[in-house]
Design goal:
Oligomer: heterodimer
Distance between the termini of chain B: 46 Å
Number of strands of chain A: 0
Strand content of chain B: 15-25%
Number of helices of chain B: 9
Distance between the termini of chain A: 26 Å
Largest sheet of chain B: 6 strands, mixed
Shape of chain A: globular
Strand content of chain A: under 5%
Largest interface: A-B, 17 and 21 residues
Structural class of chain B: alpha/beta
Structural class of chain A: mainly alpha
Largest sheet of chain A: none
Strand order of the largest sheet of chain B: 6-7-8-3-9-10
Shape of chain B: globular
Radius of gyration of chain A: 27 Å
Order of helices and strands of chain A: HHHHHHHHHHH
Number of strands of chain B: 10
Order of helices and strands of chain B: EEEHEEEHHHEHEHEEHHH
Chain lengths: 316, 266
């Protein structure tokens, strides 16, 4: 996950680097001798059309190969090691057995044989729903709270010790409290997601607010803007990148935690499904679940990176 | 109005880790309405500190500042500031940046179409009508500074405060903006305080040049009246004896009377 993030960042940077370089080249039209310039231009135009597309194509292919080949090799290596390690039999099934099981499983992901036997699709959706609700509530509470902590120093020094105390607590330690308060498994799992997603959002938002450039705040002070305008026109756009980082961190943790929480609470969900298949000793399904959890987590993170890119492009 | 801005016995002390630092002391200055005053001095002499005091961004440790008969208690749109680094909000277009200021000042009395017309007028005052819907990162440094000036002027401030507004620009752009600023000031009869370290800029634009002594504990050293007729044309002034005298007086103050700053630093 992290390598993808980094390469995305680099790609963005090079795009920015190129832009200014091209501007002076286009703007510099004051060549000392026009004839000389024409001559060189003609030479270039004679040779360029022949070679350029060829170069571009091979470069494009090269680039694509460099982008796709290493991850592909990594995957092959993983499957290869897995294959060799399970050749001699043992409790862990090999890749081929898992593939066969997956083919059966994904042939009908949305079957419904009563509440204790639902298709894999339903389980993933149930987990996503819990994450969505818990995470959404955390955003609703955490982001405004982060804004207030960043804006009011007194509040910040009042609340920060509490955050430092509660943040390192494993979210699962909150699960019994949730069970006790809500008397039901489902809201307790959602509560766990809420409590683990809220810290990164509070902290990143507060940090973003504190790092808003003094220039922008001076503009706000000179214009004597109302607090509402300060928040909507200056703080919110300035803090947005930090907020999105907080959201991205949160959703990563939330997806990590939901699997564990569902193992404990039972019901429907990918975490419960893993535990259920362990009780049924269907190890192929456990391995499939690991892949599903990984892929869904990756997709969630990539979606948020995309969203962040889109929003920050619009606002900067 | 003879005493439009009054600065009386103002001092500014900052608390630093090494103890108290006296930035300004005994500042007494009165500005007339419609007057253009330049603050000049070596870096670190407290020019910007004084400007921030007039803006209300900081409060004086001693003394009092008045604007139009009222004590300056904090920043406000009647004392608009053009910042050194333009300080446009990057997520708003040029139009929206100015509109934010116009809306703040006039939205209680005027409707949206009127506010938009004001914004458009301000942007055309600095000849940027064509760039109204561009974002700050899409325009050049000089254009950004012009938007900053338009934003300040759009509020119809009593006093326009400019903190080295052209300091970061190349010489040609700077000259063009100075000419534009002179025209705008003539049109709007604005009262202007401008911090600068450019002697030619100070003489060309100002009615009076306030020369500051070196810090720490800087104060007003001399005040030079620039009695050149307006409108002023930079080319003609280059050979004007009064202009040359003024320029020489400022240079003399900076490099003879206050020259020891380099020695101190070295």
């Amino acid at each position: 996950m992290s390598t993808l993030t980094i390469s995305g960042g680099f790609a963005g940077q090079t795009a920015v680097d190129h832009a200014p370089k091209e501007v002076p080249a286009g703007g510099c039209t004051m060549t000392p001798s026009a004839e000389a310039a024409k001559e060189t231009k003609m030479e270039k135009s004679a040779s360029l059309p022949v070679t350029e597309p060829g170069i571009a194509w091979s470069e494009l292919l090269n680039g694509a190969a460099r982008l796709v080949l290493p991850p592909l090799l990594g995957m092959l290596l993983l499957v290869g090691v897995w294959y060799v390690a399970t050749l001699g039999g043992g409790p862990i099934p090999g890749p081929l057995a898992v593939w066969d099981a997956a083919a059966v499983l994904f042939a009908d992901p949305f079957y419904n044989n009563g509440p204790n036997d639902l298709g894999i699709g339903w389980n993933v959706l149930a987990s996503l729903e819990r994450v969505g609700i818990g995470f959404g509530l955390a955003a609703l509470v955490g982001i405004p709270l982060g804004f207030m902590l960043g804006r009011f120093a007194f509040l910040s020094s009042m609340i920060n010790p509490l955050i430092s105390l509660l943040r390192p607590v494993s979210p699962l330690a909150w699960l019994p409290i949730g069970l006790l308060v809500f008397q039901k498994a489902d809201p307790a799992a959602t509560w766990t997601i809420f409590i683990c997603s809220i810290w990164p959002m509070i902290m990143n938002t507060a940090q973003g607010v504190q790092r808003v450039p003094q220039d922008y705040l001076n503009v706000a002070r000179v214009l004597d803007l109302s607090e509402w305008k300060v928040v909507t026109r200056i703080l919110f756009p300035a803090v947005l990148p930090y907020m999105l980082t907080g959201i991205r961190l949160s959703i990563g943790t939330a997806w990590l935690v939901i699997v564990a929480a569902e193992m404990l609470t039972g019901g429907v969900g990918i975490g419960f499904w893993v535990w259920d298949e362990w009780n049924n000793l269907k190890v192929e399904h456990i391995i499939i679940a690991i892949f599903i959890i990984g892929i869904v987590g990756l997709l969630l993170e990539q979606a948020l990176i995309l969203l962040a890119k889109k929003l920050t492009k619009e606002s900067s | 109005m003879e005493k439009f801005v009054q600065i009386e016995n103002v001092g500014q002390t900052f608390d630093t880790k090494k103890g108290k630092f006296v930035a300004l002391r005994d500042i007494d200055l009165t500005l007339k309405q419609g007057e253009f005053v330049a603050l000049i001095g070596h870096s670190g002499c407290g020019k910007s500190t004084l400007l921030n005091l007039i803006a209300g961004l900081t409060k004086p440790t001693s003394g009092v500042l008045l604007c139009d008969g009222r004590e300056i208690a904090g920043p406000g749109p009647e004392r608009a500031v053009v910042f050194q680094n333009h300080s446009l909000l990057p997520w708003l277009t040029c139009f929206e940046n100015i509109y934010l200021a116009v809306e703040r000042v006039f939205s209680q009395k005027e409707g949206k179409p009127k506010l938009k017309a004001r914004t458009q007028a301000a942007i055309e005052l600095v000849a940027l009508g064509h760039a109204a819907h561009k974002y700050p990162h899409e325009i050049s440094g000089g254009m950004k500074q012009r938007v900053g000036i338009a934003r300040a002027l759009s509020m119809e401030p009593k006093v326009l405060l400019m903190d080295e507004p052209f300091g970061a620009l190349d010489a040609l752009t700077r000259a063009r903006l100075q000419d534009e600023l002179m025209k705008i000031c003539e049109k709007t009869q604005a009262t202007v305080v401008m911090v600068t370290h450019d002697v030619d800029e100070a003489v060309l634009l100002s009615d009076r040049i306030v020369m500051m002594t070196n810090g720490p504990a800087a104060t007003i050293g001399e005040i030079l009246e620039v009695n050149l007729p307006r409108p002023r044309a930079r080319l003609e002034l280059a050979h004007d004896s009064a202009y040359i005298d003024c320029r020489a007086a400022v240079l003399e103050f900076l490099y003879e009377k206050q020259a020891h700053v380099e020695k101190q630093a070295a």
